[in-house]
């Protein structure tokens, strides 16, 4: 948590097109940190021999994980593929499952890939100028299927917390891959 | 509450510049509905003899007032003055005082005018591309001091609720007025 006092008002800049922010902290996720999340592990290893690309980044403030506060920030998923799988975020459940989240797409296109603990899945296309509602109980991952960064502004109840471990262990039921130059939703052959 | 099922995912369009939305409902606030909120009641009556201008509007979905959901939408405050006081929203406390709100300015400029039940006041300038954090316990009103609409995307915990009555009865401690072609923060002579 940084120096902002969440009991008073403050301002944070987020560029309405790029999502960049001078005020908040940036966290970058490199391919080496997501090795086991992409389906084509051979493609991952081959890329990592030469470089370690940034897959996505987010700009946010540290925030108090307490009910009544609203956490917010931007996420930027870069364009690209690993094998035939598009760049994406790790994705996570909320620790408090019964909490929703709102994402407003500022630029780019892609999919929000969601699933709940019962295994129900949803893949919803993302377009600039649309808000997607991620309902309670659904893990969510954003996938960039376009040629420019997928930029979204997000907000959620600050008490929600993040559970990345479940997805890291089990993966998602569905993958978004490039087939004949177009995006396609396919079953994950490695789902556990 | 409209037809959206908040237990599943859905998409809502909000123009990133104008705040307009085809998917959600629009609510317009006319001057006749805000008669007693502007300081210069003679100016109000004079305008209403000829016309009843829209002061502001908001686009949102009806939403379940329950913890875990996130309510969201856009507000559009039109440019103009009543006497020397700029167009503004009614402003409100949350019924559950201990809940914050986030506003992301998409277009225009102005002030967020805030005060808590103890009478502490804050007036924070709004600029395109900045998020303002409205902390727990603070009533909030947005004021358009520019020549174009002040457009903001907002989100808050859906359980928060709205208390408009306190502000309608008591007013705000501070007003934002035009003085010599510039905006100024002054004490409200009518505050009760």
Automatic annotation (TrEMBL), chains A, B:
<dbReference type="InterPro" id="IPR014710">
    <property type="entry name" value="RmlC-like_jellyroll"/>
</dbReference>
<dbReference type="GO" id="GO:0006094">
    <property type="term" value="P:gluconeogenesis"/>
</dbReference>
<comment type="pathway">
    <text>Carbohydrate degradation; glycolysis; D-glyceraldehyde 3-phosphate and glycerone phosphate from D-glucose: step 2/4.</text>
</comment>
<feature type="domain" description="Glucose-6-phosphate isomerase prokaryote">
    <location>
        <begin position="31"/>
        <end position="182"/>
    </location>
</feature>
<comment type="similarity">
    <text>Belongs to the archaeal-type GPI family.</text>
</comment>
<dbReference type="GO" id="GO:0046872">
    <property type="term" value="F:metal ion binding"/>
</dbReference>
<dbReference type="GO" id="GO:0005737">
    <property type="term" value="C:cytoplasm"/>
</dbReference>
<dbReference type="InterPro" id="IPR051610">
    <property type="entry name" value="GPI/OXD"/>
</dbReference>
<keyword id="KW-0413">Isomerase</keyword>
<dbReference type="Pfam" id="PF06560">
    <property type="entry name" value="GPI"/>
</dbReference>
<keyword id="KW-0324">Glycolysis</keyword>
<keyword id="KW-0312">Gluconeogenesis</keyword>
<keyword id="KW-0479">Metal-binding</keyword>
<dbReference type="GO" id="GO:0004347">
    <property type="term" value="F:glucose-6-phosphate isomerase activity"/>
</dbReference>
<dbReference type="InterPro" id="IPR011051">
    <property type="entry name" value="RmlC_Cupin_sf"/>
</dbReference>
<dbReference type="InterPro" id="IPR010551">
    <property type="entry name" value="G6P_isomerase_prok"/>
</dbReference>
<protein>
    <recommendedName>
        <fullName>glucose-6-phosphate isomerase</fullName>
        <ecNumber>5.3.1.9</ecNumber>
    </recommendedName>
</protein>
<dbReference type="GO" id="GO:0006096">
    <property type="term" value="P:glycolytic process"/>
</dbReference>
């Amino acid at each position: 948590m940084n120096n902002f006092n969440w009991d008073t008002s403050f301002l944070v800049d987020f560029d309405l097109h790029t999502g960049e922010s001078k005020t908040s902290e940036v966290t970058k996720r490199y391919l080496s940190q997501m090795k086991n999340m992409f389906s084509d592990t051979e493609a991952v290893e081959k890329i990592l021999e030469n470089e370690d690309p940034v897959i996505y980044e987010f700009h946010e403030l540290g925030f108090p994980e307490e009910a009544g506060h609203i956490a917010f920030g931007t996420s930027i998923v870069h364009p690209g593929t690993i094998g035939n799988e598009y760049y994406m975020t790790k994705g996570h459940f909320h620790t408090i499952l019964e909490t929703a989240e709102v994402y407003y797409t500022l630029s780019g296109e892609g999919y929000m890939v969601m699933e709940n603990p019962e295994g129900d899945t949803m893949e919803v296309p993302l377009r600039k100028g649309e808000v997607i509602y991620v309902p309670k109980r659904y893990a969510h991952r954003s996938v960039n299927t376009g040629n420019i960064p997928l930029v979204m502004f997000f907000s959620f109840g600050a008490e929600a917390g993040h559970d990345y471990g479940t997805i890291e262990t089990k993966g998602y039921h569905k993958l978004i891959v490039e087939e004949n130059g177009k995006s396609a939703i396919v079953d994950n052959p490695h789902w556990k």
